[in-house]
Amino acid sequence: MLGYMMDGYQPVRDGTEVRIFMLMPDAGQLLHPAHRTSDEVVEVWLGEDKSVSYRDRRLIWVEGRLRRLRTKPTEGLASFALADAVTERASPRDITRWFTP
């Protein structure tokens, strides 16, 4: 999945090593934060003994086992998770390379 790295249910400072973060389809803006619509937010759980340096709104590729967490959308809570995930940095060109507007 391609998306933007966002903090989870607690604020996280850039540079902090994390094992869990949120993947969102939109990064939002300073004055207009991204909407945390349940069925569009994915909790990313990195594999055992893995972590990644957190950077707010970083475009990132994530691969893992997709799981459903909730059957009913709940505001602010992710409906899906990627377990045993691995990450790879992405570039803005990846959006136009893989997806057509």
Would you write up a description of this structure?
The protein is mainly beta. It has one domain (2-98). The chain has one helix and seven strands; from the N terminus they run βββββββα. The protein has one helix at residues 93-98, and strands spanning 2-6, 17-18, 20-24, 42-46, 52-53, 59-68, 80-89. It has a five-stranded mixed beta barrel. It has a two-stranded antiparallel ribbon with strand order 2-5. It is globular and about 30 Å long. The two termini are 17 Å apart. The relative contact order is 0.27.
Describe this structure in a few short sentences.
This protein is mostly beta strands and 101 residues long. 6% of the residues lie in helices and 39% in strands.
Task: Spell out the key features of this protein.
101 residues, 5-stranded mixed beta barrel, two-stranded antiparallel ribbon, mainly beta
Strand line-up across the major sheet: 1-3-4-7-6
Radius of gyration: 13 Å
Largest sheet: 5 strands, mixed, barrel
Number-wise, the strands total 7
Cα end-to-end separation: 17 Å
SSE order, as H and E?
A: EEEEEEEH
Helix content: under 10%
Q: Structural class from helices and strands? A: mainly beta
Unreliable stretches covering 5 or more consecutive residues = none
How many structurally independent domains? 1
Our estimate of the beta-strand percent is: 35-45%
Q: What do the pLDDT scores average to?
A: 89
Shape: globular
Compute the number of helices.
1
